[in-house]
Amino acid sequence: MAPCLPDQAAALLRLKRSFTVVTDESGCTLASWRAGTDCCRWEGVRCGVGIGVGRVTSLDLGECGLVSSALDPALFELTSLRRLDLAWNYFNGSQIPTVGFERLIHLTHLNLSSTRFAGEIPDAIGRLTNLVSLDLSTKFYLLDLDDEFLSVASYSPEWVLVAPNIRSLVKKPHNLTELYLSNVDLSDNNEVEWCGAFSNSTTPQLQVLSLPECELEVPICESLSGIRSLSEINLQYNYIYGPIPESFGDLPSLSVLSLTYNDLEGRFPWKIFQNRNLTSVDVRYNFELSGSMPKNISSNDILTQLLVSSTNFSGPIPSSIGNIKSLKNLGLASSDFSQELPSSIGHLRSLKSLEITGAGIVGSIPSWIANLTSLTLLQFSNCGLSGQIPSSIGSIKNLTRLALYKCNFTGQIPSQLFNLTQLMVISIYSNNFLGTVELSSLWKLPDLSSLNLSNNRLSVVDGEKDNSSWVSTDYFYSLRLAYCNISNFPNALRRTPRIGTLDLSGNQIQGAIPHWARETWTHLYRLNLSDNKLSNIGYDSLPDNIQLVDLSFNLFEGPLPMPRPSTWFFDCFHNRFSSMPLNFGSQLSEMAILDASRNNLSGEIPPSICEARELLFLDLSYNNFSGSLPSCLMEDINSLNVLIMKGNQLHGELPRHIKKGCALQALDFSDNMFEGQLPKSLVACRDLEVFDIGNNLISDAFPCWMNVLPKLQILVLRSNTFIGEVGSSAFKEESNCEFAYLRILDLASNNFSGSLPHKWFKKLKSMMVKYSNETMPMQYQQDVHGPTYEYTTSITYKGNDMTFSKILRTLVVIDVSDNALHGAIPESIGELVPLRVLNMSHNALTGTIPSQLGALQELESLDLSSNDLSGEIPQELAQLHFLSVLNLSYNGLVGRIPDSPQFSNNLSYLGNIVLCGFPLSKECSNMTTPPSSHPSEEKHVDVILFLFVGLGVGIGFAVIIVVTWGIRIKKRSQDSRFPFWKKVLCM
């Protein structure tokens, strides 16, 4: 073999000088790279023969652990390169050079995986027409702990590659067979770009498509089915929605299909299971994905992984599944078919993991579980299983993860569990386990790193004081003991320096957070101490690396503790904090959600709050803040989605210079002392859904100009001094006052006058549509599984002032009471068929009650009292079977009261002296008794009442009644894909 050419050796030596060589067992020393020697014999270097003799054709430095500030241009002088592997070397956030790769025209294999490059992928890579394999992925490792993902990685996820147009990356390499882009940001790619990138005409030879954790929010393209060579499709951990194409079942070479953690729906194509090459299917955590297991699934004798748990699969689980002896990982679900697990599963002696979910799985943990001695993971979650944990579980000696949560298990935790010395994760929360658990018995497990005993009927105590037999807890990183009857901080927490997650919520811990906590918990990123009796934080700031903090429902006093720059979630709802430090905002650079409501905070809101440029949700309601509202909250923080200031003593005018790009979705300024007019610049907030200015001192006309807000659904102006006419009467052109999406309109207790326009009510289109989802919450949600807050509003409901803290989409309300309105009740109100509350009391309305109101079949509360209405009560109102509150008092109504259970309250008719019939004592004479309208089968149904208990880290509010909808927000930061219990850091 001829020696390498001098220019090749010189380029390699320059490349070597750009690296810092890490000399450890796993790294490469590049010791053979010496001047004057044949570079074709150097470590990782291969040269060509024939025409390419003496030229470097392959450079493999993969997993060398080399470090550089940038990729040296000397690399691009190796123009004969066919293979280049720089994986697992570290370029510390530098960009892939925009110029240079286009020179490597012979390149067939390029691997830059886990190299810590950042920024846009250069177009030059997409012009390498001979590429067969391209790997720009960042490998990541997920540890699944009862719906939480934690990472064992240590570097910043800011080192992310971006491909704004994936078509430009794959349009030239027509021979591409493998594409690996995990953790590359593809969020800017829409359906057209995504589907245009992968088809039989663009990537006809593609065999492996691996795009996990890429922020994709698109459907699966049918065009993928045209690539007949596809053998592996990996799209897990994205936002991919819609159905799985039926045509995937026709891909002849399909071996691996991994779609876990997406938003897929529809039926899983059963034909996929008939593919003889299929080795792995993983569609877990697609909760709307339905389907059933085919009876003949046992015909596949090479299937090693079948994971359909945490889906909406239903129907029987075939016993033939026990004939697939090749299975290593099995996850099953059955949502609506009550059955016990087939005993044939116990014959799968090679199983490494078994995951079972779904209410359709009933019975107890089967005895044959003990036969699966190779299991390392056993999970029964969200299922209908009950009974005790069998003591025979102690025979599964290889078990490293035990997850038995959200089922109906009872009894005591068997002592045999504590003899499983390889256990790393124990998650047995949200069941009905009884008895006392001594933590000292668990600390003897040498590899235990995560423990969750929350939400059972357990009492958790420290146990033996002599800790000489305890193993090291240095690598213990997750402890969750919510609602475990704990009265003190566990002593073992003194010896957990690497703990990352601590949840002690819902206990009876009193006093102060221990002084040793700050020094010990240096790696803590998530802390939940909510719903205890703690009164003293013990220090003036939070731990250094903390990201998520929940201190709600305690007795904390004094100033709010200072968050840290890393903190993005801080909930101190319902405490006794008295002040917000003036420099509080200086530590809010990453803050996304801040809830300090229901405290005793006083004084002015510090201007430093304006430094919270990433803020999404801010709730300072029910405090004693005074002064004016910092204008920056509406004018400068473009990220803010929800701003809640109700129940304070704020005054002055609202900020008037709201800019284009406003992201506000909900504004609640009720119960303050704001004055002046509403700022017309609110029209810049195109996503606004909720606006509540109730109970202030606003003096203005009806805001017809707000009709340009395309998503506005709740408008509350009650208890101010609004004047003039309502609706289209206030505007010369009716089209300028249409509120097509409005569902709650509250104008009560103002000075509105004039008549109610018949045509205007016909324009309330959203009030004419029944919603099929009776329980869809109207809420703010930080991510699809993230912390959730319900919007609240106060309206008069069934004669009482109620706070609606969780607003059902089905709740449709009109309240124009306590104004100076006159004229007739518009008949067009009868077209608002989903209306549940109608309050027009305390006005000067005249004429008769329209019979069209009888069409409001969802109506639960009707108040027309204290007007000047005349005539008879329409017989049609007797058909309102859901009506539970009716008030027609103090009008001039005459005639017989309709015969119906809804009309049986005597107080409903006070002040109508000419009315007669039951329930009044005055009998009717010389009148024909109207036909009875008693429903034969219908029963009185009241509005749905909820007690909302917060999700995740104890976030939530005690509520009275409820009204709700969901808003999905992505926080583009370290936690962009997963919230705190689904957190991914990359390696």
Describe what this molecule looks like in 3D:
- It is a single-pass type I membrane protein.
- One of its GO terms (molecular function) is protein serine/threonine kinase activity.
- Belongs to the RLP family.
- It is an enzyme of class 2 (transferase).
- With 987 residues, this protein is mostly beta strands.
- 4% of the residues lie in helices and 25% in strands.
- The chain has eight helices and 66 strands.
- The two termini are 40 Å apart.
Fill in the keyword field for this structure:
single chain, 987 residues, mainly beta, Leucine-rich repeat, LRR (right-handed beta-alpha superhelix), 36-stranded mixed β-sheet, seven-stranded parallel β-sheet, 8 helices, 66 strands, 4% helix, disordered C terminus
